[in-house]
Amino acid sequence: AAIGTLADVTEIMPTNLCAATVNWTAPTITDSEGCGYRLTWKVLDANGAVLHTPTEDANGNTPATSWNGFPIGVSYVEYTVKGKKRLKVTVTAPHVNIDVTGDFVAAKTTTAARVTELNKGTTAYYRVTLKNNTAQSLGTSSLRVTLPDNTNDNYELPEATDTNIQASGLGSVSVAYDTGNPRVLIFSNIDGGELIQNTNRYIFVPIKIKNIADCSQYENACRAVLTAKATLGYSTGNGCSTEGTKEGGVAWAQIKNTGSCE
Q: How far apart are CA 139 and CA 239, in angstroms?
């Protein structure tokens, strides 16, 4: 008896589960000898170790065409008659949909309107908004915020200990600059349990805009424009956690070259 073609299967791990149920189509068996046959299968991991051997029926066959224990990654369903043939089962990580948005605002409030022009001699804030759009629970996460050029004399980036940095509602967050990049401020130990579905969480980073006497310092676009970007590194919050990243877009604002240059 010969085993016919087997079709590979891909599934997405369901939300907040550690094992997926996968269904497939049993192969067609060609019994050219007319002697009958027994058709059995088992599930193997990518290295060939047995993950599951189903119970045979009274005739020694395993007629089932599904299993509810597939982990994330690649596994195989191996059929046996006289020879062996496999189908590949790929289970991808659960669907995570997180919005990471950033903008510049003139006040440290969640309702502040986005601004694209900043007055000299004021404090602007880079605001990051995090929103989990799915019911997938999240584990410990971190946020990398790439701030404007730290060598620019027209503004001043905050110290990591600045009390005006705000990351409320995200647990006991630690704040530090990346030792390899003085522009990158890292918010670590974010409590993923606070990133519940359809709830906005906010982070504010203050940037002091200087009031330099020479107005020409603000005429060069490279020196008068602030840009920033946030990237969230997250893990899923269940016993078989997976990791991922979500990048936000680049936010910008320009220092106004008007008013007093005392």
A: 10
